[in-house]
Structure formats: structure tokens, C-alpha cells
């Protein structure tokens, strides 16, 4: 008898919240039933045969019942020891099979087969099984609908950057449902070291979201074989893409998959995080992207962060390592016995900062500064484009810790105070003055030495070796008085930083000439980008073309070269990034471009825009669009 199988993937995918995938085929979630139908030409003794038939589901290259990667089910609807169940109903010559995967089943690609009492087996087709945040019995369950909407279904988001006092943001296209992304996400699991060592053991452990995220954490970076992204922080991105050019994960994952798993060049922290978030959401693991300002890296496990600086203020040593995943609660309460680098993550948000100065005479001296590790820990709010401060989830409010730090500070230099004045936003291309004040808190005249160094710094705290300005001077301050030193910065001096995406970092070292006590202060200057004007016209409807017009003014006193605009958006540009190159743009001139795009799904979407040039670097913006059916 011939057999016609209908996986009913369109209806099943709708029921399982997977219809948004731009993929054909059955994609279901664990702990939730799906129905397929079988049409047969012969119905002889069919009910009898069904009573004795078995349905099997298997995953991985070497499926085995002992590891839970090969599951056998009767068709009576009873739950098997594996947690899976199947029920058959017969109507005429059509069999309906209701299959319910275990809520603790391994995720991945599965094949289904039906065997009759004579052991003849019929292939019923393949499906992909994902984690299920809608299922209360699944370990990734999220009770609140709005949280599932944001952390599983939302295809775009906001990334925060800059520094703790000048927080900037830009949009990111996660695009977890775009074509090719799920395929790449599953490929990432199969390319892991764990899978290559023991494929069946790896597949059996894919029932655990902690295990899966651990694999993803290792595989997103190219430190491991076949990792998705190569990191680079040097400012030289020859042979690859400047990390700040990326506006989403889709292009990266497609390139990695289509190049036979050759690592994509290059990424930095937000790119790694964006890609990791995309893959997690694609697999059904709720995920959000967090920015930790003044993040520290404890590489020796003693919860002290050691920075080595020359006496002229330039950093000479910096260390980085990767980690995770770790429960947020364990970080807050300081449970450093928790698996997977808990101590390292704890130190990211709670640590002592000790700066060791290497003096010109070769001696070393420790200086305690006033920097607080783990500030303004930020993420996108649920359902809106506002910043949510989640610092309280990772650490307790500063209280005793600050008092202890103040005590240590007082031991070092209790008679003088050093600080930078707030300078507000600084537009790229502007000259500006940064004021530093020193307060004499004693009743005697103080003789001091002040040293300043301005230089470029990448977002991860590593200097880019671009020294902008150096100052050194000796002063006397009367009792109770305040000395103000203006540090003038010219555009032509800091211009090289703009094209590399570096911040301007200023170190200030105050030395009390009477006691030889030292006080250190560090300040960041983030430059404001010119605004990209975005105007969308036409019907924002599924299947209808819309026009977007873009313009941006050059704020610099020199001509911009190698200029281009690009757009990207989930369900707006088909996972592509159309680009328009334009002519050079002179000072105060306006660059313009226009694009057409055709939405493929309704709902609230973000259209991401980037303008790039040799002098300004990469400027990003976005607009929210409500797409109707």
C-alpha cells in the first residue's frame, strides 16, 4: 500500500509560534503536541496494525535509545518513559498522528518513522525541535507573554554603549527568523568540539539549555575550531569587516554557514553578544543583551583588578578572558562556587581596582582610584525602546563597599580632591575644553604636581596607542581654594580616533609634593554623531514597496571620502543589506540616498540605517515602522 504523508507544517508551525521562520518545513517546540496525517490506499486490517505499530523519532548521527536520542512510542496516547507520547486515530483511509515530544527532549533535527508489526518501516519525514518558553514543564518557560514577546520573538533590539556617564545606543537586527539563520544555528551545535568528540553524547545533552548556551558561548567566538567570529581590537581590519560596520547577525551567520564554517572577520563584544542572542532566540532560549559599563576582568581569581600604567599615564598591560553562563542571582549574592566562571563574572561587576604606576626611577607604587566597577548595567526595556537599568539584579546598592573605598581613598590622599567637570555632549568635529579641578581641603598652602595624558581607548579599555595630548605642571593652592586647569582639545588632534570608533580617555595624576601621596582620576569623552534624517513614504504594508530617503550633514571641517549608506531590517530587506555609494561630501554639505524595501510580515519593525565614511567612521540610526497586513 502506498503512503502519502502530510506534516501539516503550516498549521503546526502556527500553533508552535514558529510560523515566523522564513523556512519551509515542520518546526515545533518540545512539550507541545503536533498533528500529522497519513493517507493510505489500502485499509485492510488497518486498525489492528495500528494497535501494534510503533512510531520512532531520532536525532543525531548515531541515535541510541540508551542516550535518549532514539525514542520509540506506541500509538495509544500513553506517555512513554522518555516523556514522549503518540496517539493514532483512524477515519476512512486517513490516519491522524498526534505526537507530543517530551518537555525535556533534546533539541535539533529529527526524523520520524512508523513501523508495523512485520517490522516494515515507513519514513514519515523530518522536523526541527526547539525549546519551548510557552510550556510550563520546559526549563526555559517564561510565564509573562510580554517577556516572551521581547526575549524570544522580537527580531530586533537596542545595544547600549559609550560610557557610564554618556550612554549611547544603536539598533541591532537579531533576525533570528530570517532564512538560513536556524540552519546556521543548528550547524553551530554540530561544529562544536563537544559534538566532534562524541556526537551522540553531545546530542543527548542538548536537552539542557545550560549546556547548549555553554556550547554557544564557546562557538560564537573563533578561539575554538570553526567558531563564528574572529575578534580584533587593533583598529586594523584588513581582510575583514570593521566590527562597527555590522548592524545585525543575519549576514554574519549566513556568511559563516555558506563558507563552510570559516570564521567571519571581525567582531567585538557587542557583535559577539548580538550573534549569540540571535542563535539563542532561534533555538527557543529566551535571551537579552546586557551592557555592563566599567566592566572589569579578573584573570587570576582574587577579585582584584590590576592595571599597570606608566608614570605618564599610558596603560602597559591589559588582559581579557571569556566565560559563562552564570545565574544572575549567584552573581548578586556572591555565590562563587556556582559552575562556569562565577568568580570571573562576579569580578566584572564587583572588584577592587588597584592601579600600579611604574615610576621613572623604576619603582612601582599602588594608587587607589575612585572608579566603581559595574555601573549602569543596561538592557532594552520590554516592549519599548527605553533603557532599563538592571544593575540591582547583578549587585547590591553601593553602601558599605563605597564607604570602604572612601576609607582607602582617604588613606592615600585625604587632603586634596581631584575631579573632571561635566562637559556635556561634544559634536564630532568641534574643538572643546575639558576642565580639571583640584581642591585644597587643608588650612595650609599645598604644592602639587599635575600630569595629564589624553589618548584613544577602545571600548574594552585597551589603548589604541594614539596619544592626543600630554600636560605636566607644578602649582601652589591656597587653603580651601580650588585650582581649575583647562585642557584644550583640537579636532585635528583627536580626528584619528573618529574613524576607529575609539573614545578619548584622559588620565589625571595628582601628586602631593609635601607627602608624595598620589591620586588618580580617569575620564572618558564620547563624541556625538550627526543625526541621520530618515523619511519613509508609501504604504507600509506586507508585499507593498516603500521608499526611504536618508540624509546627513557633514559636521567636520574637512571632506568625507568613501561614503556609503546601507539599510537593514528583519522582514523588511529579506536579510540583505542593500548599499548605496555616494560622492565625497564637503564640510557642512549633506549626503543623501534613497532605498526601496518591501515588508514580508506585519507588526512593529525597525529599519536600521548606517552611514559610513573615512573621517566620521560608522554612524547608525533607526526608525520604527508599523507594518500592516
From TrEMBL:
Domain Transglutaminase-like: residue ranges = 261-332
| Gene3D superfamilies noted in UniProt | Immunoglobulins (2.60.40.10), Transglutaminase-like (3.90.260.10)
State the EC number(s): 2.3.2.13, 3.5.1.44
Q: Keyword check for Zinc, yes or no.
A: no
Name its cellular compartments.
Answer: Cell membrane; Chromosome; Cytoplasm, Cytosol; Mitochondrion
For this entry, list what GO says about its biological process: nervous system development; proteolysis
Q: Which SMART domains match?
A: TGc
Alphabetically sorted, this entry's keywords are: Acyltransferase, Calcium, Cell membrane, Chromosome, Cytoplasm, Extracellular matrix, GTP-binding, Hydrolase, Membrane, Metal-binding, Mitochondrion, Nucleotide-binding, Nucleus, Protease, Secreted, Transferase
Cofactor annotation remark: Binds 1 Ca(2+) ion per subunit.
Q: Which GO terms describe its cellular component?
A: chromosome; cytosol; mitochondrion; nucleus; plasma membrane
Q: Which residues bind Ca(2+)?
A: 350, 352, 398, 403
* Polar residues bias locations: 52-70
From the UniProt record, list the reaction(s) this protein catalyses.
Answer: L-glutaminyl-[protein] + histamine = 5-histaminyl-L-glutamyl-[protein] + NH4(+); L-glutaminyl-[protein] + dopamine = 5-dopaminyl-L-glutamyl-[protein] + NH4(+); L-glutaminyl-[protein] + H2O = L-glutamyl-[protein] + NH4(+); L-glutaminyl-[protein] + (R)-noradrenaline = 5-(R)-noradrenalinyl-L-glutamyl-[protein] + NH4(+)
Where do the segments described as Disordered lie? Answer: 52-71
Could you cite one Gene Ontology molecular function of this protein?
A: metal ion binding
Which residue windows are transmembrane per the record? none
Cofactor(s) the protein needs: Ca(2+)
Task: Identify its protein family.
Answer: Belongs to the transglutaminase superfamily. Transglutaminase family.
Q: What is this protein called?
A: Protein-glutamine gamma-glutamyltransferase 2
The organism encoding this protein is: Astyanax mexicanus (Blind cave fish)
Amino acid at each position: 500500500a502506498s503512503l502519502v504523508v502530510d506534516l501539516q507544517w503550516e498549521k503546526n508551525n502556527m500553533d508552535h509560534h514558529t510560523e515566523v521562520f522564513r523556512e519551509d518545513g515542520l518546526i515545533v517546540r518540545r512539550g507541545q503536541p503536533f498533528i500529522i496525517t497519513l493517507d493510505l490506499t489500502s485499509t485492510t486490517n488497518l486498525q489492528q496494525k495500528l494497535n501494534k505499530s510503533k512510531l520512532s523519532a531520532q536525532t543525531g548521527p548515531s541515535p541510541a535509545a540508551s542516550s535518549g536520542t532514539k525514542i520509540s512510542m506506541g500509538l495509544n496516547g500513553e506517555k512513554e518513559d522518555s516523556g514522549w507520547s503518540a496517539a493514532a486515530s483512524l477515519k476512512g483511509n486517513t490516519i491522524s498522528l498526534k505526537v507530543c515530544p517530551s518537555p525535556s527532549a533534546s533539541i535539533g533535527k529529527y526524523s520520524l518513522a512508523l513501523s508495523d508489526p512485520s517490522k516494515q518501516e515507513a519514513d514519515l519525514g523530518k522536523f526541527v525541535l526547539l525549546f519551548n518558553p510557552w510550556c510550563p514543564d520546559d526549563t526555559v518557560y517564561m510565564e509573562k507573554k510580554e517577556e516572551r514577546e521581547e526575549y524570544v520573538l522580537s527580531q530586533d533590539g537596542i545595544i547600549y554603549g559609550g560610557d557610564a556617564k554618556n550612554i549611547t545606543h544603536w539598533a541591532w537586527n537579531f533576525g533570528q527568523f530570517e532564512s538560513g539563520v536556524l540552519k546556521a544555528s543548528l550547524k553551530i551545535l554540530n561544529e562544536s568540539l563537544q559534538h566532534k568528540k562524541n556526537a551522540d553524547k553531545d546530542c543527548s545533552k542538548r536537552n539542557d539549555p545550560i549546556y547548549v548556551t555553554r556550547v554557544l558561548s564557546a562557538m560564537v567566538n573563533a578561539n575554538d575550531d570553526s567558531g563564528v567570529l574572529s575578534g580584533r581590537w587593533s583598529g586594523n581590519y584588513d581582510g575583514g569587516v570593521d566590527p562597527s560596520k555590522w548592524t545585525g547577525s543575519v549576514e554574519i551567520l549566513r556568511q559563516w554557514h555558506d563558507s563552510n564554517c570559516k570564521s567571519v572577520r571581525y567582531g567585538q563584544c557587542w557583535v559577539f553578544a548580538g550573534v549569540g542572542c540571535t542563535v539563542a532566540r532561534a533555538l527557543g532560549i529566551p535571551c537579552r543583551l546586557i551592557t555592563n559599563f566599567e566592566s572589569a576582568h579578573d584573570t587570576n581569581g582574587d577579585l582584584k583588578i590590576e592595571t599597570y600604567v606608566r608614570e605618564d599615564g599610558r596603560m602597559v598591560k591589559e588582559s581579557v578572558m571569556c566565560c559563562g553562563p552564570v545565574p544572575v542571582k549567584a552573581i548578586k549574592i556572591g555565590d562563587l562556587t556556582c559552575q562556569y566562571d562565577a568568580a570571573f563574572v562576579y569580578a566584572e561587576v564587583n572588584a577592587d581596582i588597584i592601579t600600579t604606576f611604574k615610576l621613572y626611577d623604576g619603582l612601582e607604587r599602588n594608587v587607589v582610584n575612585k572608579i566603581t566597577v559595574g555601573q549602569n548595567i543596561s538592557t532594552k526595556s520590554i516592549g519599548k525602546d527605553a533603557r532599563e537599568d538592571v544593575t540591582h539584579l547583578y549587585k547590591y546598592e553601593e553602601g558599605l563597599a563605597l564607604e570602604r573605598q572612601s576609607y582607602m581613598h582617604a588613606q592615600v590622599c585625604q587632603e586634596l580632591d581631584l575631579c573632571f567637570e561635566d562637559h556635556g555632549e561634544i559634536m564630532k568635529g568641534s574643538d572643546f575644553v575639558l576642565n580639571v579641578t583640584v581642591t585644597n581641603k587643608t588650612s595650609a598652602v599645598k604644592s602639587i604636581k599635575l600630569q595629564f595624558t589624553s589618548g584613544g581607548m577602545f571600548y574594552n579599555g585597551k589603548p589604541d596607542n594614539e596619544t592626543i595630548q600630554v600636560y605636566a605642571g607644578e602649582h601652589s593652592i591656597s587653603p580651601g581654594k580650588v585650582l581649575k586647569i583647562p585642557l584644550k582639545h583640537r579636532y585635528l588632534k583627536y580626528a584619528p580616533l573618529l574613524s576607529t570608533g575609539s573614545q578619548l580617555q584622559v588620565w589625571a595624576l595628582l601628586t602631593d609634593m609635601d607627602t608624595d601621596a598620589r591620586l588618580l582620576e580617569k575620564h572618558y569623552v564620547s563624541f556625538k554623531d550627526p543625526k541621520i534624517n530618515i523619511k519613509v513614504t508609501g504604504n507600509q504594508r506586507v508585499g507593498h514597496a516603500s521608499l526611504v530617503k536618508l540624509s546627513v550633514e557633514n559636521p567636520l571641517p574637512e571632506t568625507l571620502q568613501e561614503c556609503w549608506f546601507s539599510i537593514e531590517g528583519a522582514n523588511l530587506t529579506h536579510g540583505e543589506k542593500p548599499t548605496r555609494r555616494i560622492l565625497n561630501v564637503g564640510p557642512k554639505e549633506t549626503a543623501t540616498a534613497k532605498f526601496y524595501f518591501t515588508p514580508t510580515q506585519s507588526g512593529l519593525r525597525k529599519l536600521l540605517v548606517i552611514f559610513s565614511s573615512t573621517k566620521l567612521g560608522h554612524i547608525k540610526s533607526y526608525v520604527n515602522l508599523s507594518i500592516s497586513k
